[in-house]
Amino acid sequence: MDARIAVLASGAGSNLQALLDHPSVGPCIELVVSDKPQAGALERARGRGVKAIVLEPAHSATREEFDRRLAELLEEEAIEFVALAGYMRILGPPVVRSFKERILNVHPSLLPAFPGAQAPRDALARGAKVTGVTIHLVDEEVDHGPIVMQECVPVLPDDDETSLHERIQVMEHRLYPQAVRLLMEGRLKVEGRRVHILDGGP
Asked: Which residue segments constitute the domains of the chain, with CATH numbers given?
């Protein structure tokens, strides 16, 4: 199916790689944007011939200006859907409103538990027995939008932050491409806080 997807990433880009490797999603990724010039995600994109752009916050006078520049870039590239893959900036209203119910994020916990940037560390600190992965639509609040998919990951007695996060990432890499595919196929129906997955074949 024809769709134009942008992926926003700040780090190494392992979730981006999972999206690029998916047979339905990968060919639709037209743009990768990072706020970090050294992000490994940029090289992953270029290695697949995907346009990769750095948009640094320091080059914008205000957060609002940065958000406006990002929204304009996505519009110029005729992007239809946005996937956040380890993007460490909060999207502002210009982007969220322009892509209402068309932005997905993957988060390493069972939201609403452990929002924020240190979810595996927070789960360990609280003595959680189970954490997991949440894929949700993005709204104007942090780690808050309607939940599309969740799956549990047990916290093992000898886990540290690294080992737990690695197991969570294995689950992310499996689930996230599925969710992005559902989004671009128009199979996510939002009713308030609930997301229904419409049948569309395999």
From this structure: 5-197 (3.40.50.170)
